[in-house]
Design a protein that fits this description.
Number of helices: 1
Order of helices and strands: H
Strand content: under 5%
Distance between the termini: 88 Å
Structural class: mainly alpha
Number of strands: 0
Largest sheet: none
Helix content: 55-70%
C-alpha cells in the first residue's frame, strides 16, 4: 500500500508539472498567432486604392 501511495504522489506531481507546461505552451502559441501591431499609421504599399478616389 505504501508503494501505491508513493506512486500516486509521484504521478500527481508529474501531472501538475505537465499541466503547467501545456499552459505555458498555450500562452506562447497565443503570442505567435496574434499579428504584430503596426508601429506607424502608414498605409501598406500593397493596399489598392479605392475605386471612387478622385483623379488628380
Amino acid at each position: 500500500m505504501k508503494n501505491v501511495a508513493r506512486t500516486h504522489a509521484l504521478l500527481s506531481v508529474r501531472l501538475a508539472t505537465n499541466e503547467q507546461r501545456v499552459a505555458q505552451f498555450a500562452k506562447e502559441l497565443q503570442k505567435l498567432s496574434v499579428p504584430p501591431s503596426p508601429a506607424t499609421q502608414d498605409v501598406p504599399a500593397s493596399m489598392p486604392e479605392p475605386q471612387n478616389a478622385p483623379e488628380p
